Amino acid sequence: MTSKPLEGKTILVTRAKEQAQQLTHLLKEQGGTVIEVPLIAFKPVSSNEMKSVIHTLEDYQWLVFTSANGVRFFMEEVKRLEKSIPPHSIKIAVVGTKTNEVLKHYHLEADLIPEDFVAEGLIQALAGQIKRGDRILIARGNLGRKILVEQLTELGAYVHDLPVYETVVPEDAQDELISVLNTRQVDYVTFTSSSTVDHFSEIVRGSQCKTDFKVACIGPIATRTAMKNGLTVDLTPHTYTIDHLVEQIINDAKGV
């Protein structure tokens, strides 16, 4: 019987509980032992500002989503208010194919998906599409990077940065993480966002936890955050998806 590449390897998944399934499944499929310790959770924002925006969507030329969470929380509020996205007056731009897949659940599809699944890629793609004076609505979390708003504003657009969810640390995260790191032999710790990195670093800083694991980050933003927090990043895929992150871990385990 042929052994699987991740047999004997233990991988820590730090994604939010409701988003960890795909990564966990792919790792287990390759023989890995997976421990889930969610280091982020999400709370919807229901504000008068959001209600006002949803009632005036026809005033915007572009609707931008930087994550699947942004799509879910925004579109659920649109549904709750019994409104819809104006089909002809507004275009939709998203970061990443997974974000577009969630968008399709609401019978919508992105007009623009940048090749690089980061804010910088989106800015570059939009630069050739938007006109001076265009109104752009960005529906995202409360910890979104400022670069998107700043650079689109520099291009002459009016940018409305709308928080549609908050990122928080789950209640039991600290005790669970410290326990796992001190009692289990963890080979890889995976990070799929800067928030998971920041929360991990806050918890382990000064805690005397074992750190003899490799760090795998999904993309350059999480990688930069990890390095800023003093972590050595061993693996970052060239394409910033869960599938490619798992592929990197497999190749590393094989010694490729």
The tally of domains stands at: 2
- Rg from C-alpha positions? 20 Å
Q: What class, by secondary structure content?
A: alpha/beta
Helix content: 25-40%
Low-confidence stretches: none
> What integer is the average pLDDT?
92
CATH architecture descriptor text of the largest domain: 3-Layer(aba) Sandwich
Strands side by side in the biggest sheet:
3-7-6-4-5
Distance between the termini: 22 Å
Number of helical segments with 4 or more residues:
10
Question: Multimeric state of these chains?
Answer: single chain
CATH class of the largest domain: Alpha Beta
The major sheet is characterized as: 5 strands, mixed
What string gives the helices and strands in order?
EHEEHEHEHHEHEHEHEHH
How many individual β-strands?
9
> Beta-sheet strand percentage?
15-25%
